[in-house]
């Protein structure tokens, strides 16, 4: 087995940062009325700026594949060119189309050479699944290097015109034309962007590298119902009725393709199962949590930060609070790309020194999955 190192990380955040006051002017107002959820959600999530692959007029500027391509291109120089790539792994929850795969479309834009590709689906853990596929490929000797990505273009799913037909349908039923909180909630949570990581079987000759010691992932879908979903509707019994079983008329009237989240289930399980899985991973690798120098938790909202810290302490996991590192307030919740954006900022911050231990922690509320990675600065 080979040692695996993160030797480069890059990011691409489209256009200019968008502050809280600008959001609704770009995304639009559903049924011409301001959102009732916006103020509450923004107060709790702590996000001050985010990025959209749209301009101030709401016109689309980048596809998801283009965001990913932009991030990957920043990895290249004279010593590692686009033709040096042996494996491309791309994770996202918001591909531009159902078929072909996201990685296939990114490879098409790169237009470099014949190589192996892999697409990881899912939600926030898709970026970590992409990274793990590359990690295992390089570690096994299947490839000498891998470029792994996490990317999202959520903004186009959050525009008001995606919900106006549903609002009209509610009005025709003499109901209140207010979109359910499970849909409006996420309009003020998500952001666009992409991150890319280069994995190699040798470390950098100059500067630091991050050795990937191990990666783990856990799913609780065997015991918990769906929490976050798109392309279907949740029924009273907790099952999901897929978009293929609705008429094309219902796709619009019910906003079937919007991203939805059951906040009651989220509140009940996301922290508990996260700490449970974290305890499992520390025990499996006989790892002392107090040895962590930098803890990078992907947080969908700062609302969960204190709850997570409290639960970690109650579990007896002594992760130093001084080790916490996040940039949620500055870049927003970019789903599968968030962990890439955090690690990129930390790697080039000038703070790291050889021997430092880094822990990556990514939850996914889809049906509650959790992914972890342990890195050592070398």
Report on this model:
- A hairpin with a 4-residue loop joins strand 14 (357-364) and strand 15 (369-377).
- The two termini are 19 Å apart.
- The protein has helices at 23-27, 38-45, 64-73, 102-110, 126-140, 155-158, 164-172, 181-187, 248-253, 263-284, 305-314, 328-331, 338-347, and strands at residues 5-12, 18-19, 49-50, 87-92, 116-120, 145-152, 193-200, 210-219, 228-229, 232-234, 240-242, 260-261, 294-297, 357-364, 369-377.
- The chain folds into two domains: 5-207, Peroxisomal Thiolase, Chain A, domain 1; 212-377, 3-Layer(aba) Sandwich (Peroxisomal Thiolase, Chain A, domain 1), CATH 3.40.47.10.
- The longest helix is centred in the C-terminal third of the chain and has 22 residues, at 263-284.
- It has 378 residues and is an alpha+beta fold.
- The strands form four sheets. A nine-stranded mixed sheet has the order 5-4-6-7-1-8-15-14-13, with helices on both faces. A two-stranded antiparallel ribbon has the order 2-3. Strands 9-12 form a two-stranded antiparallel sheet.
Q: What's a quick, concise take on this entry?
A:
By secondary structure, the chain is α+β, with helices and mostly antiparallel strands. It folds into two domains: about 5-205, Peroxisomal Thiolase, Chain A, domain 1; about 210-375, Peroxisomal Thiolase, Chain A, domain 1 (3-Layer(aba) Sandwich), CATH 3.40.47.10. The chain is built from 13 helices and 15 strands.
């Amino acid at each position: 087995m080979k040692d695996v190192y993160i030797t480069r990380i890059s990011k691409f955040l489209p256009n200019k940062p968008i502050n809280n006051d600008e959001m609704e002017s770009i995304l639009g107002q559903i049924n011409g009325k301001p959102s009732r959820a916006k103020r509450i959600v923004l107060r709790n999530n702590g996000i001050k700026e985010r990025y959209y692959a749209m301009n101030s007029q709401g016109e689309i500027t980048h596809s998801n594949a283009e965001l990913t391509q932009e991030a990957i291109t920043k990895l290249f120089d004279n010593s590692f060119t686009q033709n040096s790539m042996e494996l491309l792994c791309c994770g996202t929850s918001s591909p531009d189309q159902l078929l072909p795969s996201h990685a296939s479309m990114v490879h098409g834009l790169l237009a470099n050479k014949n190589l192996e590709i892999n697409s990881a689906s899912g939600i926030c853990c898709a970026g970590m699944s992409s990274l793990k596929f590359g990690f295992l490929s390089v570690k096994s000797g299947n490839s000498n290097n891998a470029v792994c990505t996490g990317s999202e273009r959520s903004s186009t799913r959050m525009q008001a015109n995606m919900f106006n037909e549903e609002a009209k349908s509610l009005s025709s039923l003499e109901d209140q034309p207010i979109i359910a909180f499970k849909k409006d909630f996420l309009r003020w949570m998500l952001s666009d962007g992409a991150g890319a990581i280069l994995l190699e079987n040798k470390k950098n000759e100059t500067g630091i590298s991050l050795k990937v010691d191990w990666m783990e992932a856990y799913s609780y879908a065997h015991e918990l119902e769906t929490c976050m979903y798109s392309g279907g509707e949740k029924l009273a019994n907790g099952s999901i009725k897929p978009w293929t079983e609705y008429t094309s008329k219902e796709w619009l009237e019910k906003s079937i393709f919007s991203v939805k989240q059951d906040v009651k289930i989220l509140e009940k399980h996301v922290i508990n199962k996260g700490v449970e899985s974290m305890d499992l991973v520390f025990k499996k690798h006989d790892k002392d949590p107090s040895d962590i120098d930098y803890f990078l938790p992907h947080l969908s909202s700062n609302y969960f930060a204190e709850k997570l810290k409290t639960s970690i302490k109650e579990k007896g996991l002594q992760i130093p609070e001084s080790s916490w590192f996040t940039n949620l307030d500055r870049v927003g919740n970019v789903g599968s790309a968030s962990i890439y954006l955090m690690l990129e900022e930390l790697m080039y911050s000038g703070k790291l020194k050889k021997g430092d231990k880094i822990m990556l922690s990514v939850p996914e509320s889809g049906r509650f999955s959790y992914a972890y990675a342990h890195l050592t600065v070398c």
